[in-house]
Amino acid sequence: MNRGLLFFAAGLLAALGIGWMGFPRMLYERIDQPLQFSHRVHTSEKVGLKCDDCHAFRSDGSFAGIPSVSKCAECHAAPLTASADEKLLVEKYIVPGEEIPWRVYSRQPDNTYFSHLFHVRQARLKCDECHGSHGSSESLREFQRNRLSGYSRDIWGQNIAGFSRGMKMTECSRCHAARGRSDACLDCHK
Amino acid sequence: MREKISRRDLLRLAGGSALGLWFTPIPWKLLDDVSIWTQNGRWVTSPPRGEIQFRYSNCTLCPAGCGVRARCVGGQPISLAGIAPQSGSRGALCAVGLGGHHLRYHPQRVTQPLRRASGISASFQPCTPEDIVLTVSEALATTRASGSGDLAAILDERPGRVTSLMYRNFLSGFPNGVYLNPVSDSGATLHAMESAAEKPYGALGIDLENTRTILSFGTPLLDGWGNPARLWKMSEGLQDSSESHLKIIQAETHQSRTALLADEWLPLRPGTEAALALGLAGILIKEKLIDMAALSRQAIDLEQGAQGSFRELTEKFSPRTTAAITGVSEDKIVSLARELVQRGPSIVLGGGDPGAGPLGPEEETAIAALNFVLGNVGRRGGFLPRRELPKWLKEPSKNLKPASSLRDIPDHSIRVLFVDALPSGNAIPWTLLEKKLVRDNPVVVSFSPYLLGISRNAQFIVPSPVYLESWEEVLTPLDSPTTSYSLSLPLLVPPGGVQEPFDFIRRVAVAAGVHLAPEFQDVSPKDLFKRRVEQFHRDRRGTIFSYRNESETRVKDVASADSMWAMFCDGASWRDDPPSSTSPIASRFSLLGKAANAAERLEAVGHGRLEIQRDPATEFPLVLMPEGWRGAVGQNGLSPVMTKIYQESGLRHLGGEARVNVETGRRWGLTDGGPALIQTRCGSKVARVHFDDAVMPEVIQVIVGPNLKEFHESQEVDGRNILCLCNLDDDGVWRVTRAKMSGV
After folding, report:
1. What is the domain extent for residue B616?
2. B230 pLDDT more than 50
3. CA of B80, closest CA in chain A: separation in Å?
4. Does residue B511 belong to any structural domain of this protein?
5. A135 within some domain
6. For the ranges A109-123, B336-350, B396-410, B472-486, which has the lowest average pLDDT?
7. Which of residues 127-146 of A touch B (CB under 8 A)?
8. Residue A84 in 3-state DSSP?
């Protein structure tokens, strides 16, 4: 094989490798959640919770998002199982009344206005249409934070190597277009 | 044997890498993320994360006082919106109001007391409040002791507030204290009518919802005047051919935004409003198109009064004469007069433009007279008297200095001048105030949150809270037929160093040895607002509208004064009961007004305001006319986001720019978008000129508003804006000035 071509191909392959595999690893900081949580256990037939039992709407229509630790305390005032994570939940957060510093995969930037009320109550979207199978996950995956923008990997940027969880602006626009809804800038960016 | 890696091999490797790089996310993702990083860096103000709540207040950026819903995150207002429908905002906010929560971060924000170093263009240096109190109290003591006749004055552009009463009480401690009301008043027509009454009508409002025709003399009816949302709502049917809709006829020199939206634009020569009003009144009287018996009965001077005869005056403004003065055709003037009657109720409004300033007392008298001739006072679809706010201050009036107009103050007579923080939304030329100040070492103290407008010419700046940082009262908008009251609530904590004007004047009073009434001692404005609200509850008048619940409750059904106060503190507005009946008011009125030599002055101004100026048309063949947008001129700061309106979209011209007719521009050798030197007797300035066919030939429309530099902290703003080129009449009118222009 031509020696020059070999070097050229080596450089090409190295760049592709770094760009597609090394770069995402460098760009995204991987952070573990403060404790593990199983949505599957909580939504199982045995426990029988529904999404909106914890992720509720307030009386004024605003969405409460991730429940506060007081909501957890309604059931977990004391450990119910031998789980190390449950023990951590009770001792580190519930007893002292500290909120759990969850890393929120779907947290949008400050310039984005998203109303759960419109999407859930009026458009009647199911939770998993945006959040995927998160509601039935056995454990919490690591949170990936973009070192430059500070955003969650779930919410912004074109997919890298097929990484997509359906919470990016392109997904919002696609869904709005498919349903014939307006996708003007000021609809979401106030 | 292994071959050595050559330089060429390395270059090939690098070439392959460089090519491969473009097929990876690295360049694209980095470009994207770095751009986001520049927007989210630590240097960018970012609201804290927190619970989302809605809080309610009222806007104080102009006297319309619209109800506001603030979306707050972690207690910080993130966005503002109007409240439907009874709050005054009627579900809408203007562009200025929508960015009101940004003003806290205005680049020209002042957060510590400042003292002018020296001279007009010098910079300011920090000082302490004590420095200012000491200097001011010494100047006040000198004023009081010297017997020189020098005045101590407060300019308050939002009269009627609790703070205003305190100002008046403070000034009553000085024999030569003067309480000054707005220089430029959008409600001047209403006030001219109120003052022409033999027995006081009280304040007048406008029953716009039942009006069928409005003749507007340059009033920016559809561009921020009165309660903007009220007019927007009413204007939905404009240019509708049906007989029942509201018709607006805009008589104005240039084709303003209101003129564009109005049913009809009547191009009027500069400064000829009085002529048209008198000409129309003359036709109505001569052709007996109105109820002459009623007019004869009510008008003091239709035939002959102390000031002369109104009929005789109008006879001097025949349709032919009026047409020659105004440039409007004779036929049009006659048909307009007839239309005002046939398409009644018709009202006529003046008041002027926020940038161009007031029309002048003679023009307003002529417009008021036309309204009287049309029988508009106390009529459905006309002007209706509204009741005063419930009285809560029981101090005798001798402890409250009466209000004066700046035009009544002799030139070079004010030694100490305080300028209140709340702007009227209208422009004030610094030269107008400067003319009234003594020549040697006047002391001007500006209560202002910004280093803008008058502040840049003051000796001292006392930083006051911006909108949403303090308690403030919102009184009845000028056009409202019913009295109303609401409070602007502090949704933000002001920075340290900021002083309430109320507190500062109280400190000055102590230092100057002025004894304030007990009502104003050891209380905060909030305490006094509460007392006012308690008086509403005692009077049991009107209804209170809660913004949060969007529900209306009659005051007599509110359980206690504390409950009512709690409603105000959560966002509410009080509205008086509507008038029980609308019947013509028995009080007589003067058509010529009460000023000395009224007929002569009206006749003189009737021939054109330019005619009473000394400047020769041969030397200054053009006419300079300012224009502006309420809330965006004078003392107001604007949200930095407004650059989108001013720069990116070009919806508004920037302050200091000029517009001329294409024909005029070419004749004077100008280029569209190029610079031009504008000269008047008062000075000269270079302005960027835009050609615009909406401007009358031989007229230069100059824009009063934010200068581009005001949006950027690092650049100094010239304290003397384009208004300083305008000629100031003895009436305090600056709307028309003879000028000339040349290319630069």
Report:
1. 609-743
2. yes
3. 10
4. no
5. yes
6. B396-410
7. 146
8. helix
Nearest to B361 by CA among B195, B219, B531: B195
Q: How confident is the model at residue B321 (pLDDT cuts 50, 70, 90)?
A: very high
Residue of B26, B34, B40 with shortest CB distance to A150:
B40
Q: What's the mean pLDDT when you consider all of chain B?
A: 87
Q: What are phi and psi of B302, to 5 degrees?
A: -65, -50
Q: What is the residue type of A166?
A: G
Task: Indicate whether A32 belongs to any domain.
Answer: yes
**B353 DSSP assignment:** B
What's the confidence (pLDDT) of residue B15? 95
Question: Tell me: the pLDDT tens digits for B456-502?
Answer: 889 999 999 999 999 999 999 888 888 999 999 999 999 999 999 99
Cα Rg, chain A, nearest whole Å: 21
> A110-124, B144-158, B245-259 — which one is most confidently predicted on average?
B245-259
Domain that holds residue A178: 3-66+102-188
Count the neighbouring beta carbons within 10 Å of the beta carbon of residue B20.
23
Note whether A163 contacts B: Cβ–Cβ < 8 A: no
Nearest chain B residue to A65 by CA: give it: B51
Q: Under a CB-based contact definition with an 8 Å cutoff, are residues B631 and B424 in contact? A: no
Lowest mean pLDDT among A101-105, B133-137, B197-201: B197-201
End-to-end CA distance of chain B: 79
The reply to whether A96 falls in a domain is no
Answer yes or no: is A35 within a domain: yes
Test B36 with A151 for CB contact under 8 angstroms.
yes
Phi and psi at A60, nearest 5°, equal -85, 5
- CB within 8 Å: A157 and B29: yes
Binary contact (B16, A18; C-beta < 8 A): no
Residue of B492, B474, B445, B388 whose CA lies nearest to B139: B445
B643-674 per-position pLDDT tens digit = 778 777 778 888 888 999 999 999 999 999 99
Number of domains in chain B: 3
Q: Is B29 in Cβ contact with A23 (below 8 Å)?
A: yes
Contact check, Cβ <8 Å, A148/B9: no
Report how many domains make up chain A: 1
Residue of A nearest to B549 (CA): A60
**Residue B580: what pLDDT?**
64
Interface-testing mutation among B12, B69, B93, with chain A (most A C-beta atoms within 10 A):
B12
